[in-house]
Structure formats: structure tokens, C-alpha cells
Amino acid sequence: MTDSVLLSIDDRGVARLHLNRAELHNAFDDSLIRDLTHHLQQLQSNPAVRVLVLSAEGKSFSAGADLNWMKRMAGYSEAQNLADAMDLAGLMHILHTLRIPTIARVQGAAFGGGVGLLACCDLVVASEAASFCLSEVKLGLIPAVISPYVVGKLGASQARRYFLTAERFDAATAHRLGLVHEVTTADHLDEQVNSWIKLLLANGPHAMAAAKQLIDRVSHSAIDDALIHDTAQRIAHIRASQEGKEGLNAFLEKRPPAWIRL
After folding, report:
1. What pTM value is reported for the model?
2. DSSP of 192-246, one letter per residue?
3. Cα 117 vs. chain centroid, distance in angstroms?
4. How deeply is 11 buried, as exposed, middle or buried, from its count of CB atoms within 10 A (0-12, 13-18, 19+)?
5. What is the Cα 238 distance to its own chain's centre?
6. Tens digits of per-residue pLDDT, 14-56?
7. How far apart are CA 2 and CA 47, in angstroms?
8. Sorted alphabetically, which keywords does the UniProt record give (predicted)?
9. Which residue, 134, 143, 234, 260, has fewest beta-carbon neighbours within 10 Å?
């Protein structure tokens, strides 16, 4: 039986999670959700891992929910549906809060939960051939557990359009909306991914983790005394850290910092 998710980690600490259900357009089911969550938990606790690339096999990035899974869900009680939804919510949350930078490599269609996956990633590059759709209302459903991340990327106004119309949009539109950072040809996807990897590996690992936490803390927060103190405390803490001291000393001494492997 072929693994639905493939994980590899190279000697630079670059991890690659690859959805491997091409025959099913990398659609979600409870098994795939468990596998992805398990792998992400492993990566979260592995200090040697520096960057994650999320990619997919075949024509589609992810078509959202698997048909057989949806058939099973149709017979679930509300309590069973809640437990099932919490598993998917847990997957989205751990991907969004992963301590390392995450890159989504989108080569084809991303529908429903597939849009949720890339919305949870820090950097997204898509092929010109990619397409996107938040199609849940066509089935009488809503994109509930992915909504905090998708609305965070699209904003409320555009979410109203695409959640309600379930219209398909192309990569150029996804870029304009802020869901995708770069659009390129299919044969240049890896070039863009590798360019980002090179940039990320040059940065302090703890600093990047702290920067991700900082963004979550200040986004949509009132600029009050509590926030001002919190941000001051964060920079004071990281300046006094081993990595902060190493970075400043390396800059002053005109040498590469210790986290750059020459």
C-alpha cells in the first residue's frame, strides 16, 4: 500500500511533506489528516529541522474532502462530526503555528481544505495553471475550521465573495488577493522554492520562530500599553539570547553566524 504522505529531511534541515494520493487528487480523509498531523508533530519537536516545504503529487494540490470520507460523515451524529472536525482543526492549527518557516508549492488545483493548507503556510508559490475554490456551500456546508486562516489571508470582504459564490479563481487572482505570494510557470516552481529556502537558511532559526509568534500577537491587536510592553519584552529577550548575541557578534566581526552551514 502506498503511503498517503511522504516525509524526507535533507542534511540542511529542509523537510519536505509530499501529499501522495494523486489518483484521488490528494483529497482529505481522516487517515490523511492523522498522517499529516503526526508528521508535523515530529517536525515541531525536531530541532535539526529548519524549513518545511509542503507539496503534492499529480495534477492537483488538494481537492478538499475525499468523497468516501464525506459519505461516512453523512451518517455521523453531531458529536461524531465535532470530533472529526476537531481533528482537521488540529491539523490546520499545528501547520499555522509550526515553529519553522513553511512553504507551500502549489502545482495544481486547491479546493476547500486544500486552500486551508496553503493559507496556513508562511510562503506560497503557485503555478500559473493552479486554480482555487472554496466550494463548501455548493454542498450545503461551510469552510468553518479553515476560516481563521483563509480570512486572515483574504480579508473579510473577499472572503464574503469567495465563501458565498464558491466561484473558482486562478493563480493571478490568488496572488492579487494575498493568498499566494508568487506565481510562476510549472517548470520554475522549484526555482522559487529553492530561492526562498536559501534566504530562510541564512536567518536565525529562533528569530524566525519568534517573528512568527510576533506576527500572530500583533495582528489585529490594539496598540495599547500591554502590546507596547509585550513587543519591548520580546526584543529584550531575544537580544539577550544566545542566538541574538551570536547574530550581533557575527555582524560586528564580519563573519557568518553559527547557524549558517558553510
Report:
1. 0.95
2. HHHHHHHHHHTS-HHHHHHHHHHHHHHTT---SHHHHHHHHHHHHHHHTSHHHHH
3. 5
4. exposed
5. 25
6. 999 999 998 989 998 888 999 999 999 999 999 999 999 999 9
7. 28
8. Lyase
9. 260
